[in-house]
Amino acid sequence: MKVAIRDDDTCYFTAPDELERVYADIWDRVPVCLATVPFAIGYERHGIPREHWHSGDALPLDCNAELVDYVKQLHRANRITVALHGYTHEDFPGGFEFQAAPDPERRVSEGLAYLRRTLDVSVGIFVPPHNALSKRGLAAVTRHGLNLLGSFLSFRPSMRPWELRTLGNWWRVQRFRTRTGRGRRDRFVYPFVLRYGSHAEFGCHSLVPGTTLAELVTGFDEARKAGGDFCLATHYWEVDQTLKDVMRRFLDYAARCGDVRFVAAEELFA
Ligand SMILES: [Zn+2]
Questions:
Q1: DSSP state for residue 193 in the 8-state scheme
Q2: Secondary structure (3-state) at 114
Q3: CA of 73 to the centre of ligand 1 (A)
Q4: pLDDT of residue 152
Q5: Global pTM value
Q6: CA distances for 138 relative to 51, 89, 105, 217, angstroms
Q7: What is the whole-number distance in angstroms between the Cα of residue 163 and the centre of ligand 1?
Q8: Mean of the pLDDT values across residues 244-253?
Q9: Which DSSP category does 92 fall into?
Q10: In the predicted structure, residue 247 carries a pLDDT above the cut 60
Q11: In this structure, what are the phi and psi dihedrals at residue 50, rounded to the nearest 5 degrees?
């Protein structure tokens, strides 16, 4: 069984200390997939200075030279991998970035080229801001052969371009739903990769304020029993002592299972 970690929102506003604080005792055990925003626009959240909440300025990652050096160093030490997490991570009146931006194609191709060039890494995964993706957003992402990591199962055939495998994947998910005694509205994370013509998708289990160890263990046990894999998704900027404790205890629990292998998120798609 493969177990991975994804961490969202590394961007211009991230101080190396913030990543260090959460992951210094984790990433030698489990490499962390940093879902990174190339040209972040500020918004109201902890860790973003107030003057950037409404400025609308897009700030290139490489204007934070200290962070860029740090991320490169982490990558060389195999402690992290890098995924593309939107382009500016801004919200539009009509929805989140990859639902409502007028130019998702440009955002993917420029964002991808920029991250590869700036951080000197390969990038194979896209994480949609707010886990939201329109049909056009999905097409822009898959055109570059990027795989998708989401935080919930957004599998609605109506939300995706039609292709031959859509029906087969829909059927797989339904079968899992029935087998686990769930109804149409019960939430779950499908523990296997769904493969399409030019990309693949995998759902993550969120670690957010309020998430308990018991919830993660239940999801993990279910995935393990089914023969599937597991990816934990969080945001470094909301990991406090309580969440850190949940994360550590969850990883200890997983490590006690002899068949578990901690991997970089990219390996979930191998
Ligand atoms: Zn985000």
A1: P
A2: helix
A3: 23
A4: 56
A5: 0.95
A6: 33, 16, 10, 31
A7: 28
A8: 98
A9: B
A10: yes
A11: -50, -35
Confirm if 228 and 191 have CB atoms less than 8 A apart.
Answer: yes
What's the gap in Å between 258 CA and the centre of ligand 1? 33
| Gap between the Cα atoms of 187 and 184, Å rounded | 8
CA of residue 181 to ligand 1 center, whole Å: 32
Residue 122 CB coordination number (10 Å):
11
Q: Give me the residue label for tokens 């570059």.
A: 144
| Cα distance between residue 7 and residue 19, in whole Å | 9
* Distance between Cα 226 and ligand 1 center (Å): 29
CA-wise closest residue to 38 among 103, 101, 129 = 129
pLDDT in tens, 130-171: 988 988 999 999 999 999 998 655 556 666 767 778 888 888
Provide the residue type at 204 as one letter: C
For 30-51, how does the pLDDT look when each residue is reduced to its tens digit (9 = 90+)?
A: 999 999 999 999 999 989 999 9
**Residue with token string 């200290």:** 66
Residues 6+ away with beta carbon under 8 Å from 66: 15, 16
State both tokens at 121.
């890494």
